[in-house]
């Protein structure tokens, strides 16, 4: 999937959060990195059709996204979203959480939805958890079930906003390993992350977002080896 962002700007009232975002590339796997408050979540929400830019244009596979209700609904149907907090429904079991959007948003019948979910549970060692409620699961299991829910709808693009930030550190690895499997399956993804090892080793490309705009972008191998701007050098010094 190809994405093109042309002069995307976003302000909330008087405060400018994104200014002149320009980017064009095949997505494959992109990590968005940068200091907090830099606009990473805002950009991800615009790409996912959850927020409308104040100005600028976005094209997916060459097709202009108009940000009207119809194109936003289309966009969201093709995108899986994973947030920092797990966002599972507490009163539903793991299985019910995963099949709910399949049945209600995608009109899939229950046996097929259960089969799709069951395959994901099997693949990621979650089968014994399927009838448990979120409160009975570890943070890592909950987040992996959230990812399973986002992937079950067979999205064309997976967007993740700091999916490991709210977890105890011991669960980070299992969540990132799961993401890596979907990347290897060929699912396009954009992840906002502070896990620099994952950004460097598992993501093809990096967008460094700071001071309201993209200060650097490119192949991850190159970005980490030869950061150019003083802002990125300082950011990497601090975080690595
Ligand atoms: P990041 O994800 O890089 O930490 P965000 O995109 O969350 O950054 O936020 C960037 C800036 O935009 C912050 O200063 C934040 O306070 C502001 N902001 C984000 N969402 C809103 C909103 N809905 N209303 C007003 N300000 C917002
Ligand atoms: Mg954020």
3D structure, described in words:
- Belongs to the ABC transporter superfamily.
- This is Amino acid ABC transporter ATP-binding protein.
- GO terms for molecular function: ATP binding; ATP hydrolysis activity.
- Keywords: ATP-binding, Nucleotide-binding, Transport.
- The protein is of the alpha/beta class.
- Helices cover 39% and strands 27% of the residues.
- A six-stranded mixed sheet has the order 6-7-8-3-9-10, with helices on both faces. The chain has a four-stranded antiparallel sheet with strand order 2-1-4-5.
- A hairpin with a 2-residue loop joins strand 9 (205-210) and strand 10.
- Helix 3 (94-104) packs across helix 4 (110-123), helix 3 (94-104) runs parallel beside helix 5 and helix 5 runs parallel beside helix 6 (172-185).
- The longest helix is centred in the middle third of the chain and has 14 residues, at 110-123.
- The radius of gyration is 18 Å and the shape is globular.
- It starts with a strand and ends with a helix.
- The mean pLDDT is 96.
- It binds adenosine-5'-diphosphate (ADP) and magnesium ion.
Shape descriptor: globular
Bound molecule types: adenosine-5'-diphosphate, magnesium ion
Rg on CA atoms, Å: 18 Å
Low-confidence stretches: none
SS-based structural class? Answer: alpha/beta
Report how far apart the termini are: 31 Å
The H/E string reads EEEHEEHEHHHEHEHEEHH
Main sheet strand line-up:
6-7-8-3-9-10
Main β-sheet description: 6 strands, mixed
| Residue share in β-strands | 25-35%
- Estimate percent helicity: 25-40%
Please provide the count of β strands: 10
DSSP helix count? Answer: 9
How would you state the average pLDDT, rounded?
96
